[in-house]
Amino acid sequence: MRIAIVEDDVVQGDALEQWFREQGADVHLFRESREFVRIAGRESFDVALVDWMLPEMTGHEVLRWLREDRCNDTPVVFITARNAEEDIVEALNAGADDYLVKPVRKMELISRIDAVLRRARPHAKSQKIEVAQYAFDLPSKRVTMNGEPIELTDKEFELAVFLFRNLGRLLSRGHMLEAVWGQTANLATRTVDTHVSRVRSKLNLRPENGFRLVPTYNYGYRLEQLADEDADA
After folding, report:
1. Judgement on whether residues 97 and 178 belong to the same structural domain of the protein
2. Domains held by the chain: number
3. Does the pLDDT at position 124 exceed 70?
4. CA distance 158 to 27
5. Mind listing the pLDDT tens digit for each residue in 7-19?
6. Partners of 129 in the beta sheet?
7. pTM
8. What is the 8-class DSSP label of residue 134?
9. Are 152 and 201 in contact (CB under 8 A)?
């Protein structure tokens, strides 16, 4: 999981960062909302944990920027001292996925984040993924297409699984690099491009086969499943 935490309170931010690192997450902590906005314009995250009361841009303004300006559906969970019913309703109606009132409890927060991700990404922790003609068995690292096995290297398999788990999402190269090669990997993002090309070729991810792996300049890739009429076009 790649999580963005937007929290200007040093103690609270450090605690949240530690909690999620202990869970094995790739954590990106932002003390300033505008810094998050700058990075989120070119990087993708699985979930964003946002304080409502922030200097520069409030959490509500950050959420509006994501949903309206960027058309970004990254799950957003608010953490705030504001506990009035109208505040909670306003946040949820604006597109927030959950809302927790400070002080937050560690295990409740982690459980709520897991629940949000399960709703947003149904395949997030599945041991077997089946989409159209493709079937991925994670324990054996085996993939088949129309029942026929396809040979992939370990990294190609992990990348393909990551793409299918995030079907329809625009994923940044940095996100893909962290998810497949690890957050401390000292690799160029060109590595991602090379492996994406191999996965596209080996799995035949092309419109005539019902899928399209689309690059976005200076950002990353999106794996799309096409409707029948789009695949035939």
Report:
1. no
2. 2
3. no
4. 20
5. 999 999 999 999 9
6. 136
7. 0.87
8. E
9. no
What is the crossing angle of helices 173-181 and 154-165, to 10°?
A: 130
What's the whole-number mean pLDDT along residues 124-135?
A: 87
User: β-strand 170-172 against 148-150: which pairing, if any?
Assistant: unpaired
Q: Tokens for 31, please give them.
A: 């003390």
Domain coverage including residue 109? 2-120
- Tell which residue, 53, 56, 10, has the closest CA to residue 29: 10
| 54-107 residue pLDDT tens | 988 999 999 999 999 998 999 999 998 888 888 888 888 888 999 999 999 999
Q: Record the tokens describing residue 37, joined without a space.
A: 């906005």
Query: Residue 89: how many CB atoms within 10 A of its CB?
Result: 11
- Looking at the structure, tell me whether residues 76 and 162 fall in a common domain: no
Whole-angstrom Cα Rg for the chain? 19
How many angstroms separate the CA atoms of 155 and 41, rounded? 27
Boundary residue ending a domain (71, 97, 120): 120
**Mean per-residue pLDDT for 147-176?**
95
Q: Decide: 99 and 80 in contact? Cβ < 8 Å.
A: yes
What Cα–Cα distance (Å) separates residue 126 from each residue in 36, 40, 123, 130, 165? 30, 27, 5, 10, 9
Closest CA to 196 of 227, 162, 166, 167: 162
Which residues does 202 contact at the CB level (< 8 Å), separation at least 6? 150, 151, 152, 156
Amino acid code (one letter) for 174: G
Statement to judge: residues 63 and 134 lie in one domain:
no
CA-based angle 138:143:145, to the nearest 5?
Answer: 145
* Strands ordered across the beta sheet of 220-225: 170-172, 220-225, 211-216
Q: What's the mean pLDDT in 95-120? A: 92
